[in-house]
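pls design
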């Protein structure tokens, strides 16, 4: 058993009061069409506390005067069903992975819950109630909260979200090692792309090359759908069509990442399809690179997260004024219209605060960009950076990014 998950449960328990019950659901794969479903992705908070990535599991943590009582509810084996969809996780395996001693089947969850309530053990129910917007579709947790409130109106319901942010925002050594390996796998995929990249290919061939390379080397898969945006489409931040021909003289922006043991990498590189940057492309590229280097140099404990974007904008503004593309800072948003950083971890856009100072153990992206649609130029360069006690460590420093390094590799 990885003690990391037990430590996470202990940290959560320390933030709870006697009589608090935390309930987390692993989730289920949504239906796509007919009897088909999308690939399952576990609720990452559930994974953070259990290490399990199977559908339909439920985990509970009850704080009593005697300590923490934790139970993992798993699906019961059904050998007829398993012939069709695969084997269920056994109690023994669930115990080994999670380190949780009390393993029960799902059909015991409601009776256990009711028993705890009848014995007066529960004062407040704590759930993962994150919502990104008002119209977001109800989750398994939302539905459970609604049903629970009808059945037990005397028990309060609170959200675990803020505690989960606090815990997951600071990475432990185990997490940093997984992210580092995800970055290393991402480099393998980018190396594979550089080995085949040439005019006349399709964007989706680069996407396929990357996915094949990282899976062949042990990745779970992609941490998010690959963006392979060439020419004018590189100004679209979340371009996912990947269906255009790579034209000689254009750039291709590759925003991609491998996932390893549920942890994500998130890297962006912009390459010249012909193998050599034009003078104009080189000028714009080096401005983006200069902004990135200024932001990375500033990363250290105590600096405010939002200050990173101010540094980025200041550098981009000064450089674009110097080349005559803009007259003042008010015009920058035409060519730079996103933030320079986000937290990285189990999720690509990981749980974390922006209105906070940086602390050791945070892992951030640094991804300045410039998007000049009228010139068919879209450039973004992204690194994954760990905040350390004395400054920072660029986890992706081994991935080539200077004009000279990229052109040298593509010339081979």
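designed seq:
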């Amino acid at each position: 058993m990885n003690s990391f998950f037990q430590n996470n449960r202990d940290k959560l328990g320390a933030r709870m009061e006697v009589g608090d019950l935390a309930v987390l659901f692993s989730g289920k794969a949504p239906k796509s069409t007919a009897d088909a479903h999308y690939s399952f992705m576990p609720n990452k908070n559930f994974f953070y506390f259990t290490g399990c990535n199977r559908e339909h599991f439920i985990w509970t943590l009850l704080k009593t005067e005697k300590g923490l009582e934790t139970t993992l509810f798993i699906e019961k084996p059904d050998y007829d069903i398993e012939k069709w969809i695969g084997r269920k996780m056994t109690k023994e395996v669930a115990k080994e992975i999670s380190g949780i001693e009390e393993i029960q089947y799902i059909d015991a969850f409601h009776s256990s819950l009711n028993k705890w309530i009848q014995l007066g053990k529960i004062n407040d129910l704590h759930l993962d109630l994150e919502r990104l917007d008002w119209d977001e579709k109800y989750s398994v947790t939302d539905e459970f909260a609604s049903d629970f409130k009808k059945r037990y109106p005397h028990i309060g319901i609170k959200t675990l979200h803020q505690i989960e942010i606090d815990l997951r925002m600071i990475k432990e050594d185990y997490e940093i090692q997984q992210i580092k390996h995800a970055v290393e796998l991402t480099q393998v995929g980018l190396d594979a792309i550089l080995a085949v990249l040439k005019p006349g290919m399709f964007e989706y061939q680069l996407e396929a090359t990357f996915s094949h390379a990282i899976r062949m080397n042990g990745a779970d898969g992609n941490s998010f759908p690959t963006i392979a945006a060439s020419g004018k489409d590189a100004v679209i931040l979340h371009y996912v069509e990947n269906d255009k021909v790579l034209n000689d003289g254009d750039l291709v922006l590759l925003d991609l990442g491998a996932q390893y043991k549920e942890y994500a990498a998130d890297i962006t590189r912009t390459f010249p399809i012909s193998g050599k940057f034009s003078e104009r492309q080189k000028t714009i590229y080096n401005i983006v690179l200069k902004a990135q280097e200024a932001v990375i140099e500033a990363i250290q404990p105590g600096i405010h997260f939002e200050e990173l974007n101010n540094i980025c904008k200041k550098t981009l503004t000064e450089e674009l004024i110097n080349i005559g593309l803009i007259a003042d800072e008010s015009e920058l948003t035409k060519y730079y219209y996103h933030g320079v950083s986000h937290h990285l971890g189990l999720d690509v856009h990981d749980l974390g605060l922006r209105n906070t100072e940086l602390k050791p153990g945070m892992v951030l992206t640094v991804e300045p960009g410039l998007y000049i649609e009228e010139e068919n130029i879209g450039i973004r360069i992204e690194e994954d950076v760990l905040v350390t006690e004395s400054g920072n460590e660029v986890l992706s420093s081994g991935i080539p990014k200077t004009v000279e390094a990229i052109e040298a590799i593509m010339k081979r």
